[in-house]
Amino acid sequence: MPLAEHLIKGRETLLTQWVQRADAVYAFETAGFVRSSQDSLSNPVGRRTLEAAAALFDALLAPRPDQQALTPALTEFVKVRAVQDLPPEKALAALFAFKPLIRAYLAAEAVFVDFALREELAVLDARVDELALLSFALYSRCREELFQLRLADMRRRSDVFVRLAQQRGQSGPEEETPGA
Q: Which of 12, 71, 90, 117 is 20 to 30 A from 61, alpha carbon to alpha carbon?
């Protein structure tokens, strides 16, 4: 049986475990909320992580992964982590968790890893590595966009203060009349 068929059987288990690994970067209280609430309005982080995990998993197992189709899911996953000021090694570490989770799943299911499956695992490992490299590029781009937005906001605020100061300077301070 090909590797993809084994992993598709364990899709839900693997996705659950992967999302738990992805959530492990958060503080205990936050991780508990992210895991427990599936409501996309009250928990957009958890929902986006789960959706991204499913899309990434399916793309990793596709016979010919379509990077164009994969990029939106990966971008959503990375954006959520970029706005939270997580360092890249923590924000993206979950992507590398696919490898050991898959091996642990195969071992738990007593799947004999013969030469053919080893070859397929090597291909899958290479795909995970490509995914991780792409995610680092996306993370850098997201962080740069955030920096530019914050800089524009600071400039806008600064301009407001300058205009207020100029207006006050033009009208001058109110003078008190002596002896009044």
A: 90
